[in-house]
Amino acid sequence: MEIIKGAGVWTHPGEAGNDWVEQLRTADLSVGTYCIPAGGLDTQSPHTEDEIYVVTAGRARIETPGRTAEVGPGAVIFVPAGEEHRFTEVTEDLVLLVMFGPAYGSRSPSRGRENA
Fold this sequence. Notes:
116 residues; 1 helix; mainly beta; 6% helix; disordered C terminus; RmlC_Cupin_sf; Cupin domain-containing protein; six-stranded antiparallel β-sheet; RmlC-like_jellyroll
């Protein structure tokens, strides 16, 4: 058992614009926090792993090629591996608890070469 400290808690991104911090990593799962300030831009690309977001604070829209939805505290969003997605219209500092299965980046071709 492990208590994951800091997961889902706002961290001001500073000059970077957004902030991603991974708090737990195993072969099959990673957990982290992604923060986007109000008015900020989400610049992420599709991931090679399935992903679940839990909105712990803030408000925004999430957009995929087939759907757009308003999200706020308590929203839980599943994004399958490879699906384009982006948070837009961030009206309040957005804090997302993020879970990847398997661990973030573990399926990416470049990561596989690094471990070979």
